[in-house]
Structures are given as structure tokens and as C-alpha cells.
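tRNA-guanine(15) transglycosylase
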Amino acid sequence: MAIAFESLYSDIAGRCGKLTVGKKTVKTPALLPVINPHLQLVTPKEMQAMGVEALITNAYIFSQSRQFRERALTEGLHKVLDFDGVIMTDSGSFQLSVYGEVSITNTETLSFQRDIGSDIWVPLDIPTSPAADRETTERELAITLQRLAEAKEVFGPDAPIAGPVQGGTFGDLRELSARKVTELGFTFCPVGAVVPLMESYRYRDLVKVVMASKRELSPSACVHLFGAGHPSMFALATAMGCDLFDSAAYALYAKDGRYLTAHGSYRIEELADLPCACSVCRSHTAEELRAAPDRERLLALHNLYVTLAEISRVRQAIVDGTLWELVDERCRGHPRLLDGYRELLTHAPALAAHDRVSKRRFFYRGDESCQRTEVLRYQQQLARLRLGKNVLVVIDGKVQGGYDDTLFFRPPFGPYPAELRETFPIGPCETPDWDAAMVHQGCRGIRALAESHPKSRIVIAAGPAWAGLIREELAEMETVDDEV
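Predicted C-alpha cells:
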């Protein structure tokens, strides 16, 4: 029952795709809600009615449960949970990270997951704390890789086993782990031990960890971000190339009286109104929800509705080619998410290799937009222009005669020939009045043009509004005054 992944649409490094596990399929990006068999605020059957195609539960809990162990072995996991979609089972690694030990071995937990009919099995990897030193991280990574190799050897190359990527916060170790996981032939690759980073709002470090892992993973691998369940960060994680998320946040937040939104969360006691269109919020006032005897269950339902809606919003943004705009919108909801967004932009050269060539639009949203993949790719492609010996670039000025070619200027991209005026990204580019950041970035496009055409004489004609900045930014280049 091999695991396969197919990408159907892409934007940045995000993919709308299809995960196939045996005869079952899951549309990605997707959320796998965490199910604790002993405490179900929302049942798997209810989740399936809400559109959930896959969920995750803990095989270690089942293996240690007097109530559920024998039932799972005799009836099968799907019947016990009353869910016929894809079920992924964690091995006990979470308990290992919390308690330091578990009473089960790697092969025992994998055998148990097989015997209860799990669709995706997880080996007993070591989730190294982000606070661990390098020596500890290397030692624990070696154990994880040995257990992954053991899983392949004992259960065969086609067993539906996940290959977790570990390595703490050390980028080179994450790369090593991802490379070994790929060499072992894993096609389903969770990025593990990142929950502490998200709990402490270390989104910059999260981006570094995921991007390091992605560098060495196969492009055909389905990437699962373990423990990512807050809707505000789905767009950011998807832009890095994460396809699946799992979390118990919908239930944990409900037990703590917290109300999820795509921008953050609220204490239910703080809400004067319910800013959501789900069935829970349209059938209750804030006062009624606070006083409801089944408040935890209602909050869990709302939290899950909001989370699933954000997954759908991310999918649509990928299809539309507007994922950058969604990332920008979501990451401005919290300063630490903005840190993560800015870190992601430093990886634009790597992301540009995955980004689509043409999109519906480009919305300028401030300085960060100047670093987006569309800008970088456009400026790289300026080398493809065929130019004569004398070239004029008109920046908010007047066209002058006597040149072999005349190019115009659209910041933050830079120079363009008139023939590209209506094409992406020049045509469908929505910007406010020019600002210094976008003009500076456009000037980098002019410099890229000059460097890629050393035999052409590039002359700049700038109007008075931007002449000073242009001469400062491109002091080494030739400028001419506008003709009156």
C-alpha cells in the first residue's frame, strides 16, 4: 500500500495536489485533526461530514488502552473510530518527547500500527528539542535514521511508512536528515519537533528549519508539518511547500475557552459578538455560547470550521496564484509571524525555482513585496531581451529619439519593452503611487539589464520626481535630462 503524491497546481512552493494512500485519496493542502479516543469533542464521523478526508490518532495510546487496544486489533482502527477516510497514526514519539521514554520499541509500534489497519504508520523517531545542543541532536538524529532504515528493512519498501525529518534547529542536520530520508525511499515526510517553536512564536526559526528540510527532500514527497494547527500560519507553511498539517488545537483551545479566527484567537469571555459565519456562531450569541452547558464542544466545532475554511482559502489562493497576498495578509496579524514572513523572503531565489511563471495579478503591499519571487524572476529574465547598441530606459520621463530600443519602467520590476505592457507581471500589477522602496528595487532591475547586456549602452531618462534617487541608486550609469 504505497504512498504517492501528485501536484496539480502550484504557487510559490505551495501545492494543491492529491495524496494517494492505497485506494484512498486526500486533497492537499489538508488538515488532519488529532483524535484522542478517550476524549472526542467532535467525532470522526462528524468531521467526515464537514469534509475532513484524513485524521491522525496516537497508536501508542491505543496500544496502552484497556478500553481500545483489543477492539482496535480485532475490529480495526477505522471501525473503532467510525471513519473510512485516511487514518495516520503517531508512534508514541509525542509521549517520548514529553515523558522521556515509552514502553514500546520501533518495530513493535510499527507492527501494532499495521495490525490495527492504520493507513500511514510513523516510526518511533526521536523528536529532538529545539533547545538541545549539537552533540545531543546528532546522537538522537542517528537513532532516528537507524530506526527509519530498520522500518524499511523489516516492513519492505512499499509499506505506508512516514519518514520524519529531524535535526533540531541545526540547518545542516535537517538537510542531512532530509537527504537520508530521501535516499531511503520515503515519499511521505513529516518535519518533526517543531511544536516548541510554534508555541513560543519562533516563526523565523520555523521557516529556517522547514526550508533546510525542503532543500534535500524529493520534489515528489508529500511534506507534513507536525503539530501545526493554528489557521493563521497555514499560508506561510504552505508557501514553504508543506502539504499536510495536524493539530489538536481545535479541541485544546476549546477546553481553554479560546475562540479561533484566521488572524488569531480570543478568550470567549472577551467577545461581544461572534465574527464568524459557521453554524455555531450563527445559532448562538456570544453570551449564549459562554453560558452553554456544552460550551467546549461548541467551541471545538467552531474552531474546526474556521480551521478547515482557512485550508480551503489557501487552496483557492494557490489555484488563483495569489498565495503571496494571503501570506502577507495573515503574517501581518502578529509581529512574530511577520518575522517568519521576512525570513521566508530571504529564500526567494530558492522559491522562485518552484513558483509559477504567470499569475492572475501582483498586488503591491509594501517593502516586502519588492522581495517576492515574481520580482526576482522578472529581473532574472531581463537577460533574455534582445537589445541594440543604444538603449533608452524611460523612468517617469519623456521618450526621446535616436535610440535603437526604448524601454519603459514599472517598479518594483524595472524596465520593460512596450510589447510586455499587458502581460504578467507588468500588466496585472496593482501598485499605489510609487514609493522609494519600489523604485529602488526597480533600479536593481535596470542594473541587472545592464549587467546582462554588456555590449549595449543603457541610458536613463528620469522625470524630476525621481531623478535624484535614480542618480543616487545608479550613479555608475548614464542619464539624460528630459527634453522640453
